[in-house]
Amino acid sequence: MALLDFRRKTSPAAGGLDTFLKGYSIEVMPRTAAKIEDFRALLPAGTRVYIAHIEGTPIEEMVATAARIAADGYEVMPHFPARIIRDAATLNDWIARYQGEADVDQALLLAGGVKHPHGAFHSSMQLLETGAFDKAGFRRLHVAGHPEGNRDIDTDGTMRQVEAALRWKQDFSARTDARMALVTQFAFDARPVIAWAEGLRAAGIDLPVHIGIAGPAKLQTLIKFAIACGVGPSLKVLQKRALDVTKLLLPYEPTEILQALAEHKAANPGFAIEQVHFFPLGGIGPTAAWARDKGGASGRPAAATA
């Protein structure tokens, strides 16, 4: 398959959207990655590709996917879901496999979408406390952010525990050499995202934010994932769209939320959101093509800090 000419295909987008999309990352799973014949035909070299570790996925499949994508010239960031890692020995084994077979030196640490822990760990903070990633020389550790809260963590509907965890992660970042960033769940409304991000800085949390965005997909698909993932107030954006028969059959595109965030960033350079992280719920190819058509380019931007 011939590689695409990204310089020719890419065109500037109005309102700073092209600038805002620069350096975007994307998430895949082993089963979705297996459907891609050649990632180089979709993503420019240097793109950070997260590999989601879903409960039940063998570590061998995760590592093989990481090795394949890394060999094609991408920065690989596998998930380490605390609640499916049984013990320290398992954690160290995973780290050694990723390093030995895929030369991985960065990871996304999160609790994981499992109600009951499989073993010793139940939070990303416990994984950080082991010191295993520092000992292995991991240069970058990302953790989860929740602009609209997380019902699995704060069952009372508040954000108390989520906010306490953020302060802990901020303190961990300050006392270690870890390069950290917050990677968020996807959202559909810019207003709560902006309020949350501005609140971080007001609370003294200066971790860079990589905002989660759902790529183009059928509306029914997004609503299903949004409900399953516990997306909060911004779910109403999808529900309102679903009531409009003229829009119901059209694929959703994240133009509106990204445009609003891009304009806020342009007007407020210190805005906490520094990069976009795509969840390609409608497919890796369509998401990459949409980002390219909007003037965005993946890979690490020259002035990136996270």
Automatic annotation (TrEMBL):
Keywords: Oxidoreductase. It comes from Roseisalinus antarcticus. This is Methylenetetrahydrofolate reductase. It comes from the Bacteria. GO terms for molecular function: oxidoreductase activity. The keyword Oxidoreductase applies. InterPro entries: FAD-linked_oxidoreductase-like.
